[in-house]
Structure prediction request, 359 residues.
Amino acid sequence: MGVIQIDSVNVLVRSQELPVFARLGSHSRDLIPRATAQGDLFEYWGHAAAHLPTSHHRLWRWKMDASVGGPWRSIHDLRRRRPGYIESLLDRVRSQGAVTAGELSERTERKGPWWDWDDAKEALEYLFMSGQLTATRRSSDFARVYDLPERVVPEVHLRAPTASRADAHRQLLDLAGRSLGIATAYDLADYYRLQLSECKPYIEDLVENDRLRRVRVEGWKDSAYLHVDAREPRRVRASALLSMFDPVVWNRRRDERLFDFHYRIEIYTPAPNRKFGYYVLPFLFDERIAARVDLKADRATGALLASGVFAEPDVNRPEVARALAGELRLMAEWLGLDTVKIGRRGDLAEPVRRALARR
Prediction:
């Protein structure tokens, strides 16, 4: 994948664990923290907040360098109000070790809504964005722990030659193409959240160098690009519950083109206005998105709760229900939960309940 998006919502499990589960099935849940501790992954803004291979650190320094000086109005304001403050925090980390924003906070009142950052958080995020600090995650509350890059990223990757902005874009677009297989220019740029207008000449470079081949896809309005390493299987056989931040479905425009699947996150939608539920995962079955499930891990009762289960149009419901029941049971076992409980919402709820009962 080349990137695992991070999100703090923990209704089911931390969302960055779900793409790994979708591909590996049951696995040790400390896999990502161990990979970070061993120097295989680092965190940065790739697509969004994400785990990235440390071998790709050299491909993100253009973005870090572009952030030096403070691209945010709030950073300019902070420098004006508190000259030397940002530098003092960097010196503090250098001399005394890693910190969280909470440890440096001067806040006396209760924290407000998201993005209600105090000066310490603002400064640390700037240092993180500009690459002067990097971060790992504290296991107890998932807070960012800021530290010097040389204490987190292996020296071999820190010393690797920095890719120019142009070369970094070419290589990131190549990685995106390999991960997606077939994609429009918009899809390629979106994979690492690059500016499409800047990417277009680099996509053409990849075509000229035979890394991408321009193709047409029936039903797609825009031209598409097939990566040189893309495989063309006769049939795809798969069953997977997908995080809302999984690369298969995070691009809503691509979802509709590829799967005829309209997907919107309803976490921030008032409960009465939700169509499917709070934490809804699409279910990939063979070559299409066949269902969606509103899931929650009820750790107090040891149950995986599927309060709503909804079939997509024109699917073989008994077949999909059996496959989905198997994935739900596998997920419950992976999370250390004893049972799977199916709610009453959705046209696939009863078929999945029956499938579970037969196992």
The two ends are 33 Å apart (CA to CA). The longest helix spans residues 317-334.
